[in-house]
């Protein structure tokens, strides 16, 4: 292979990296005459955003883009087509401007909600310096279009607070340089109380001039060393993290103070809306955690600076297997927005249970917020409802660690790959993305359809044997793996199911409940408020109903609980029966890895089935109409 880059100037680190990537993959030769090349890369200012890949004939391809990072992305797309032997001319433009992975890595090497070993960045409050592994990771993220990464946990502990100090910034720069060559901007999660924690000031009040100057000085220090630094990610006034509420200030005042320190350097502040009163009383049914983001941020619409973006979880609670779309989306008109997902399987199986999350994400992204004419799908909200679209997009909490296969369960890699692909193009179906990943990961297998069958049904299977009908949070406290039906029922975090002898579910209606339904656009409000039109899969999120309430499919709630939990276990047994067909086709380490996790998944599914069915039989006194084994 011969390639040509026009112009042939390699001062740009991304362009130089493109040259190195081509040479690495193809052992190719850079030529100085365009007509001699098989693949030609051309910087063309008219091709923006994204890139154009055009097949001129059987021997020549031209890749055009306005930016060097887009040329690199075009090269990866070209590779994808070569590997899949499915080459077509294509004009690729990303759906979202920001496509981000958030790491919840701690400086001691642990990862909050990490299920694949320890951090690839840190150990014992030091940087790991394993730059080859970081480079491989950066290449993977760039190949699916990721362009931002946050390097540390949003819960910023003592040592991590000092990542923005001169002591650590030189090492942050090393990482930023690696990711920068792949077109990925590095961000850091910061502690809002840093001026106090550093010992410089006695306050972190965002309206205090000394505090403002402190952050401006800090920003200047960072950008002097890392000119392409992305900015700050902030979790404030939630779960014990400090924030502007301590000083009687609102979140716009807190975010804008940081944003103004970054603005001269073109940095951004991503401010999470995960803010709620954690000290709820289970006795008080008028308080509703689901309301918190809307109640805290809707009144601030239009008060945030242009380089502030609100990062909003896709649902109103906390990355549950099933919950409705957060009503802030579509309602906010004057504020930059990022949709937040969770690739790491905190509530969705810990990367023990197979759970292909693209099924959930695709459905969520194609939800109609009803704030547009004729429609406004969630996938279009960041770019159409944000005053500065280039500061908006999607983000997800990542799932990699130091395990040999990066994600603990080999099949969990598909979620990370899939997030990047759906962040770039939300109209790619889960089936399309899975087919790509399978081909790239395993090549041509005789029984490839076995893996596809397991993965495409896995999200529904996990939902079937865990919490029913959108009720959520029946998990082991703190750990969030395995059943604990009443684990959070009397807890200050405010995630309740209110099961009694007659029924279960949370009444979030205007008529008799917390009024949460009114946060939605009129059409969705009417749908969720009315018991007869509320979708069954979200019934118990919005309504408290009797066990004998009849669902749209004709089953009662209690029979649905029994049936789905039995069916979920049977489905996992089917996975275990199918998997041996791949023993002779997969690398032994991959085959055994998935087999081990499937066996663990079956134990988990059985425990969910038996505890859930026993609990609700004892609570309701209503037997299973199929007379299956329930531990009464």
In short:
Helices cover 36% and strands 12% of the residues.
Describe this protein's structure.
GO terms for molecular function: alpha-glucuronidase activity; xylan alpha-1,2-glucuronosidase activity. This is AguA protein. The protein is 36% helix and 12% strand. It is α/β, with parallel strands linked by helices. It folds into 3 domains: 2-92, Chitobiase, domain 2 (2-Layer Sandwich); 98-442, TIM Barrel; 464-506 and 544-620, Alpha-d-glucuronidase, C-terminal Domain (Alpha-Beta Complex). The chain has an 8-stranded parallel β-barrel. A 6-stranded mixed sheet has the order 2-1-3-5-4-6, covered by helices on one side. A hairpin with a 2-residue loop joins strand 4 (51-57) and strand 5. Helix 1 (13-26) runs parallel beside helix 2 and helix 13 packs across helix 14 (430-442). It is globular and about 80 Å long. The mean pLDDT is 96.
Strands, helices and their partners?
Blueprint: E1 2-6, H1 13-26, E2 29-30, E3 39-43, E4 51-57, E5 60-65, H2 68-84, E6 90-92, E7 98-102, E8 122-123, E9 126-127, H3 131-143, E10 148-150, H4 158-161, H5 166-180, E11 185-189, H6 194-197, H7 209-225, E12 231-234, H8 251-262, E13 268-272, H9 292-297, E14 308-313, H10 328-331, E15 336-342, H11 358-365, H12 381-384, E16 393-397, H13 413-424, H14 430-442, H15 448-465, E17 503-504, H16 522-529, H17 539-542, E18 545-546, H18 557-578, H19 588-620
Parallel strand pairs: 1-2, 1-3, 3-5, 7-10, 7-16, 10-11, 11-12, 12-13, 13-14, 14-15, 15-16
Antiparallel strand pairs: 4-5, 4-6, 8-9, 17-18
Helix pairs in contact: 1-2, 7-8, 13-14, 14-15, 15-18, 18-19
């Amino acid at each position: 292979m011969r390639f040509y880059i026009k112009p042939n100037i390699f001062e740009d680190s991304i362009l130089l990296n493109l040259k190195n990537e081509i040479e690495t993959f193809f052992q190719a030769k850079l030529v100085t005459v365009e007509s001699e090349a098989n693949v030609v890369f051309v910087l063309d200012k008219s091709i923006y955003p994204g890139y154009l890949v055009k097949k001129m004939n059987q021997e020549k391809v031209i890749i055009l883009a306005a930016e060097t990072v887009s040329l690199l992305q075009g090269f990866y797309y070209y590779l994808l087509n070569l590997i899949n032997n499915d080459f077509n001319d294509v004009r690729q433009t990303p759906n979202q401007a920001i496509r981000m992975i958030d790491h919840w890595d701690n400086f001691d090497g642990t990862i909050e909600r990490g299920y694949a070993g320890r951090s690839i960045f840190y150990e014992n409050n030091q940087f790991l310096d394993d730059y080859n592994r970081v480079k491989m990771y950066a290449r993977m993220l760039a190949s699916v279009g990721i362009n931002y990464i946050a390097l540390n946990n949003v819960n910023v502990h003592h040592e991590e607070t000092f990542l923005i100090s001169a002591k650590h910034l030189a090492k942050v720069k090393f990482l930023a340089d690696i990711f920068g060559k792949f077109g990925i901007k590095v961000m850091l999660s910061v502690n809002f109380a840093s001026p106090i924690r550093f010992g410089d000031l006695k306050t972190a009040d965002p309206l205090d001039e000394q505090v403002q100057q402190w952050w401006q000085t800090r920003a200047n220090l960072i950008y002097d060393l890392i000119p392409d630094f992305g900015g700050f990610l902030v979790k404030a006034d939630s779960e014990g993290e400090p924030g502007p509420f301590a000083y009687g200030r609102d979140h716009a005042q807190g975010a804008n103070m940081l944003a103004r320190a970054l603005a001269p350097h073109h940095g951004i502040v991503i401010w999470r809306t995960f803010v709620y009163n954690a000290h709820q009383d289970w006795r008080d049914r008028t308080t509703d955690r689901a309301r918190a983001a809307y109640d805290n941020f809707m009144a601030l619409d239009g008060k945030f600076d242009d380089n502030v973006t609100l990062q909003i979880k896709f649902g109103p609670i906390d990355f549950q297997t099933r919950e409705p779309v957060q009503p802030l989306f579509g309602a906010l008109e004057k504020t930059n927005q990022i949709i937040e997902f969770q690739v790491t399987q905190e509530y969705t199986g810990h990367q023990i249970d197979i759970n292909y999350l693209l099924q959930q994400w695709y459905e969520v992204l194609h939800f109609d917020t009803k704030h547009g004419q004729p429609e406004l799908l969630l996938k279009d909200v960041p770019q159409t409802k944000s005053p500065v679209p280039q500061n908006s997009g999607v983000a997800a909490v990542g799932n990699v660690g130091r395990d040999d296969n990066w994600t603990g369960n080999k099949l969990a890699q598909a979620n990370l790959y899939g997030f990047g692909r759906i962040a770039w193009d939300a109209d790619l179906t889960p089936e399309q993305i899975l087919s790509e990943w399978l081909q790239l990961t395993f090549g041509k297998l005789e029984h490839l359809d076995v893996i596809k069958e397991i993965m495409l049904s896995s999200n529904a299977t996990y939902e079937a044997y865990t919490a029913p009908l959108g009720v959520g949070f029946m998990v082991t406290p703190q750990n969030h793996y395995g059943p604990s039906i009443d684990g959070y029922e009397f807890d200050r975090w405010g995630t309740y199911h209110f099961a009694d002898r007659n029924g279960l579910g949370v009444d979030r209606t205007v008529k008799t409940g917390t009024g949460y339904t009114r946060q939605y656009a009129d059409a969705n409000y009417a749908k969720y408020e009315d018991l007869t039109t509320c979708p069954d899969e979200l019934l118990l999120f919005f309504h408290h109903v009797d066990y004998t309430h009849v669902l749209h499919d004709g089953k009662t709630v209690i029979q649905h609980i029994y049936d789905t939990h039995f069916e979920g276990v049977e489905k996992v047994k089917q996975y275990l029966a199918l998997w041996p067909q791949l023993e002779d086709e997969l690398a032994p380490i991959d085959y055994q890895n998935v087999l081990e996790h499937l066996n663990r998944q079956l134990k988990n599914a059985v425990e969910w089935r038996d505890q859930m069915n026993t609990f609700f039989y004892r609570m309701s006194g209503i037997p299973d109409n199929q007379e299956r084994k329930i531990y009464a």
